[in-house]
Amino acid sequence: MRILKFFSFIAVAATTGLCSQNITDLGTIPGTTESHPTNSSLGTILLLHGFPDFSYAWRYQVPYLTSLGYRVIAPDLIGYANTDAPWEISNWALKAQSGDIASLLDQVAPGEKIILGGHDWGAGLAYMFAAWHPEYLKAFFTLSVPYTRPWLGPALGWNDTLDLVENGTYPTLAYQLQWRDPAMDRNYSTEADVRQFYNAAFGGVTADGVGALSPFTGIDHDILPFLGNQTSIPPDDFEIYVKKISQKGLRGGLNWYRTRRMNWEDELELAVEWESKGGFRFSTPYLFVVAEQDTFMPPKYYADLGQYFDQLTQESVDAGHWSMWEKPDEVNAILGKWIGEL
Ligand SMILES: *[C@@H]1O[C@H](CO)[C@@H](O)[C@H](O)[C@H]1NC(C)=O
Ligand SMILES: *[C@@H]1O[C@H](CO)[C@@H](O)[C@H](O)[C@H]1NC(C)=O
Ligand SMILES: *[C@@H]1O[C@H](CO)[C@@H](O)[C@H](O)[C@H]1NC(C)=O
Ligand SMILES: *[C@@H]1O[C@H](CO)[C@@H](O)[C@H](O)[C@H]1NC(C)=O
Ligand SMILES: *[C@@H]1O[C@H](CO)[C@@H](O)[C@H](O)[C@H]1NC(C)=O
Ligand SMILES: *[C@@H]1O[C@H](CO)[C@@H](O)[C@H](O)[C@H]1NC(C)=O
């Protein structure tokens, strides 16, 4: 059994309105992982962040969900901030990570059926956790990134991301071809480089209004030095991202983009089993929250989610990729309503 030490930047002592900024070791001090609702706890909600985020992604949801009476746990996932980042990329495969999440839950919420939430790669992990370990879940939700069959079917064989970009299946995943390249790790390992990466990712533009991150090309390394400051988040929050992620550089986050083939191999087994039962369907109650302005996720990617979920609720917010911190009130209202109806 692999042992991964999880930490969290925000999970403890959340009270309505304010998050604690203490780092908590979620792996070995389970007693301190809880947000502490003053109301009696209705259950546990586990929140999985995406790239290039960390537990801080959920800074507006932890207090809100706590105020509803839930205990909330938001770990830094593998490769981020204080959580482990081993050298072997296979640790990042979504099946392996699903096992880590199950172990974490065995420690911090034994025997409980929890509510799981995920954004971006955290959504990808949430789907696979729901596929491999449905017995842990009461319900789950994801933001921004819809479910896609991670492979196109056992009969079709393996298709590399490059092929699926070039033949028009997933044109906006072209940036992943750059990000899976190990050259990215070297280019974004120092604090100054990490700062430039986050400035581009969070919307910094040149004097002419040109950004340095595109779904079709990835990062334009050459114009990074000419970007003005990002305006997506307050400067204090921006410094928190730069400081936390600089501890390890971008390698740990980018490794999430390097497991597609491993995931496909792991999931073949699941695929054959599911197809024998009539197809790809999740029976756990599920909410998808569309981010309408997310240029990485055009509507065709989520046009027909009903085919995969027995109990689908679909909502939508007028936000870009990071809806949970771009439009926290709207996202919280959607989550609160859905949770209230479970
Ligand atoms: C962080 O933890 C220390 C020691 O437990 C405590 O004194 C401090 O108030 C905490 N800070 C926050 C922001 O919760
Ligand atoms: C406790 O829950 C009630 C609703 O049941 C809510 O109105 C109240 O704000 C909650 N209290 C706190 C301290 O969160
Ligand atoms: C996907 O893989 C199958 C089987 O190897 C192959 O026949 C097909 O051409 C591939 N599709 C693309 C877009 O490369
Ligand atoms: C691209 O290739 C995949 C895998 O072979 C196939 O399922 C899909 O229909 C193709 N799409 C287009 C637009 O050709
Ligand atoms: C990495 O750095 C090299 C040398 O500065 C540069 O040519 C290349 O474009 C960079 N790549 C990325 C993805 O930033
Ligand atoms: C941009 O941010 C840096 C800190 O990261 C700050 O020192 C600088 O003054 C900012 N520039 C502008 C034009 O706001």
From TrEMBL:
The residue range of the signal peptide is: 1-19
Q: Which Pfam families does the annotation name?
A: Abhydrolase_1
Domain of life, per lineage: Eukaryota
Gene Ontology molecular function: any one: hydrolase activity
Identify the keywords attached in UniProt to this record, alphabetized. Answer: Hydrolase, Signal
The UniProt family comment states: Belongs to the AB hydrolase superfamily. Epoxide hydrolase family.
This protein's name: Alpha/beta-hydrolase
